[in-house]
# Entry
Amino acid sequence: MRRLPSLGIGLSLLLALVMMPAGAAVVPVSAAAASDTFTNPIAHSDDPYIIRYQGNYYFTGTDGCQGGYLCVWKTATITGLGSATKYSVFKIPGCPAPNCADDWAPEIHYLRGRFYIYYAADAGSNSQHRIFVLEDTGSDPVGTYIEADTGYPSGELHEASDEWAIDPDVFTTTQGGMYLVWSGWPTSAGTEQDIYIAPMSDPLHLSGPRVDISAPTRPWETIGLNVNEGPVGFQHGGRTFISYSASFCATDSYSVGLLTDQGQNLLDPAAWVKTGPIFAEHSGVEGPASFVPITSPSGEDWFLVHSNTAACDPGRVIRAQRLYWDTDGMPLLGYPIADGVPIVAPAGELGSSGTPDPYVRGWGSAFGDAAEGDGTDGLQSGHWQIPGPSGARVLASPGSTSSQVFRASNPNYQTYSVAAQVSWQGGGPGDSRYGIYACYSDHLNQVQALIDPRTGEFLTDGVVQGIDAGWQSTALPAGFEAGRTHAILVRKEGATFTFSLDGSVLQQRTFTGTAPVLLSGQVGLIAENASASYEGVRVFDTV
# Structure
């Protein structure tokens, strides 16, 4: 778009937890629309929204629908979006009219047996932006739409505050509740964009006042401008989530944040816990945001985002990637996969083989190097036994000097804690170390913490922009027994890491470079010439 509750976990609690569509088609960007693999980006557009209905996908976006129309694109495959058929479904009225200009972020929804398109528009001035609804005249998602009879001019979805509002999204819960979420100004001053929610009595009417559930207060939400926008509500495993976009869309730092409902009362601001960014700039992909999930015919979860090419819009492109779920039920997006890297197409679609992805097990190669194919440290190696999502065992092998395995925890958390119960079970001659990667962005940016029972040392090291920061050693506590289980805990706050062993802080280090470094990363297990056991591996977002 053109856009002019903190989770605190103390050390004792962490340790306790550880120890337990008519018109010309858009020119395709990717030629692999119906093959076993595809590459990003897949289309030219922005503000994506997508649904699946009776065997086809239906897509809406802000750009790409010229001639004063709102459009819907129809495609049999997600990866075929770039060559989808475009249908002009609504002619935007001429000015003066409340919805005659700046028609942004249309979303197609199928609610209670009818198709609706929700969008934001104004009468020629940005400060007049409000939310409007279109309703289909039949039962065809690419048929004709008219301004819905909401009781207000031009199909406005009226909200009592009558403040600036954009990026509407409607979602329903398994309990049958219907809600509208959007991005709005707290006051007419327009100094920031917050996320609001309100209950709906039906697809055309709100049944209560707006509730502010997220304001841009964290550093990653205030780059360029103070922005929370593009909310999308969805459910998984009985939990309700709202994704949103943070910071100014013209910056590389435009990213995806997440709100998770913890109290079952979606209208209670205190029930929402914020984490993020859960998807951010990486591999040359700048400003990835506007997340929307979608499920393939076989049941695979995927998501779309747009990313920048130069500025906000026009000129953004659409990207598709697999959506996984972490062991705690949180959505796991990984890193943006670079342009041109082959990706296995969604299973169940025409031309898809459905080859299993290596990340689906929760353990494997690191997201960063594995996605780019340009590193060695981040590739899984060694003889590992993986009994479950929070434990592992590595066996030392003759001639093996190091071994590692990575957990598919969210690699975009910037402030977090990682904990594990570890025990040494032997090793070859010489140094024999075991421990964790506290942060692994790629092989050029990483931090590790290791125990060497033979030298009696607790060791930490960091690599920043390819430069080794050097090992720092602290003596292990008196009476340390390697064969017993010990708790490693590392708390990361930006580039500062606090290292603890069995509840005692042993080191604190800050890693700096010529640019912001180690902002986020995946966690992993590492052993050098050692057999070791790991249990209770946990990652906590501890903003």
Remarks:
- The radius of gyration is 25 Å.
- Residues 1-35, 353-361 have pLDDT under 50 and may be disordered.
